[in-house]
Specification:
The chain is an all-beta fold and 328 residues long. It contains no helices and 25 strands.
Length: 328
């Protein structure tokens, strides 16, 4: 397995790094919800090709809650940035069902327009833009009670022209594309990572089961098939953020195991890097949250916050860090 290297130590206004995207100038954009220190505003960082790091913008807070917690991010075809504002992940009871999908127009380091695309969400997480639609994972649908007693989660799909929609977090929401059950009773946490391949197939990671689902579509965009495509608990315990390379290899952040896994186009899972409990200051994987391929490297955010019996991570440390690996 590879030995992770330190990509960057982040400024002290970052306590929790998470989602990433690449803008049309080749800059790496990093979303920081900062759950580990709620006194820090949720913000976006810009890392230029010379790896210079600066704050890009603070994310506009909800008028209702006074907070913003940016997780997954993705650019639309017009350069606007779509963002999962996961208020509920904070754990504050008053913030449950206050999550939003925002569309931000940013010019000269200023948010010049904020559009609330979706509101009332329980747990929006990962996001992708594909063929004039917005797809995002919704890791918990606690209002939906399956007869099995297991957690239900889903993927929502919206047209890029839609805005101002308030959801119910129930199966009555017409924008739900697909639903999922998490079978692992020890980790009742649902879909998280999300990615498309060149053929337009959608891949979704069920966090608690460590399973990757592949969704295939009919020509009219309806779901043709939704089933487990890759799963190997010995190599992949949990599925957080994911990214696909030009050859169809899928790289996944294994949040629970302090590891990164690679899934071949044929669905074979192999762990490519793993770290023990660590502070990440020498580049170790410190609860990896999301990978991205940038300048030929696999850059990985270190979320470094969640603890418990299913986690290698035991505590949060500062400064926050990013790791890097070779995408091979």
């Amino acid at each position: 397995m590879q030995k992770p290297r330190l990509f960057a130590k982040l400024p002290d206004y970052v306590a929790t790094p998470d989602g990433m995207a690449i803008d049309d100038q080749g800059n790496l954009i990093l979303a920081c919800p900062n759950y580990a220190d709620p006194s820090l505003p949720g913000c976006l960082l810009k890392i230029d090709p010379d790896r210079r790091i600066r704050k890009w913008v603070d994310v506009p807070v909800s008028e209702e809650t006074g907070h913003a917690f940016p997780m997954g991010i993705a650019f639309g075809p017009d350069g606007d940035l779509y963002l999962c504002d996961n208020q509920g992940w904070s754990g504050a009871p008053e913030l449950v069902f206050k999550g939003r999908i925002l569309r931000l127009r940013i010019r000269e380091d200023q948010v010049v327009k904020t559009t609330v695309v979706v509101s009332g969400l329980e747990h929006p997480n990962g996001i992708r833009v594909h063929r004039n639609h917005l797809y995002f994972t919704h890791s918990m649908l606690s209002r939906v009670k399956d007869p099995s007693g297991l957690l239900v989660s889903c993927v929502y799909r919206f047209g890029l022209e839609e805005e101002g929609i308030r959801v119910t977090n129930t199966l009555e929401d017409r924008h739900i594309l697909a639903t999922f059950l998490t079978h692992n009773k020890d980790i009742q946490y649902g879909v998280d990572g999300i990615e498309f391949d060149k053929q337009g197939n959608l891949y979704v990671g069920n966090f608690g089961d460590g399973a990757v689902y592949r969704i295939r579509f009919h020509d009219d965009g309806s779901v043709k098939e939704n089933k487990v495509w890759a799963q190997d608990q010995s190599q992949l315990k949990s599925t957080d953020g994911m990214i696909i390379d030009g050859e169809g290899n899928l790289y996944i952040a294994d949040f629970c195991a302090n590891a990164v896994a690679k899934v071949s186009p044929g669905g074979k899972v192999s762990r490519i890097a793993q770290s023990p409990d660590t502070d990440g200051l020498h580049g170790e994987l410190d609860q990896p949250g999301e990978p991205i391929i940038w300048q030929g490297k696999l850059v990985v955010t270190c979320f470094d916050l969640v603890t418990g019996p299913q986690m290698v991570n035991t505590k949060h440390e500062m400064p926050a860090t990013l790791s890097e690996l070779e995408p091979r």
